[in-house]
Amino acid sequence: ELVRQGEALKRTEQMVDKMDQDLKTSQKHIQSIKSVWGGLVNYFKAKPPENKPEQNGAPEYYANSKLKEAMTSSKEQESKYQESHPNLRKLDNADNDFSKADLVSSGQRDSYPRNQQLRAYHQKIDNNLDEMSSGLSRLKNLALGLQTEIEEQDDMLDRLTRKVETLDINIKNTDKKVRQL
Fold first, then answer.
1. Per residue in 118-155, pLDDT tens?
2. How far apart are CA 127 and CA 102, in angstroms?
3. In angstroms, rounded to a whole number, what is the distance separating the alpha carbons of residues 82 and 48?
């Protein structure tokens, strides 16, 4: 949704830039109509190069790299997450039976109690904590990506606000000049 909003902001900024360009052309024509001298000045004045809206401070919009990486990483981990999530996976009776394959490697066995059932529960708790850690890491990356994207769009909104305010003042001045004609 943020990426879509960023694209909409970019298009809006391009339209405001185009409107500003059109307004400058209108002001030039009004000056030509207003007086012969203004027409001569405009005739001999070098034509301003037509700036494409993309060149006016806002290159083509792309979501920030942090957000893209977080979204890609999240999508890659999504199937693994859904398989391991207790509420999303299909629970079967096999989960309740602990086999020796579910236990930790022999190097880590000493850190668990000798009681097999207790050891299995400890291993299950460790596995759940690992899954929680993985999920929190995924959420952290997404949150950081969203934060960066929001900051970039906030800057874009500030820039757009300044442009719109300037355009509004120029439109009012042009309207005033037209009414004087």
1. 888 999 999 999 999 989 999 999 999 899 999 999 99
2. 10
3. 58
Q: Would you tell me the crossing angle of helices 36-44 and 2-34 to the nearest 10 degrees?
A: 120
Which residue bears the tokens 């930790």?
A: 104
Token match 């000493």: residue? 110
Unique residue bearing structure tokens 């083509």: 60
Token pair of 147 as six digits: 């934060």
Give the H or E element holding residue 80: helix 65-84
Residue 81 in this model has a pLDDT that exceeds 70 = no
- Structure tokens that stand for 70 in this block: 């977080």
User: 24 near 56, Cβ under 8 Å?
Assistant: no
pTM of this prediction? Answer: 0.56
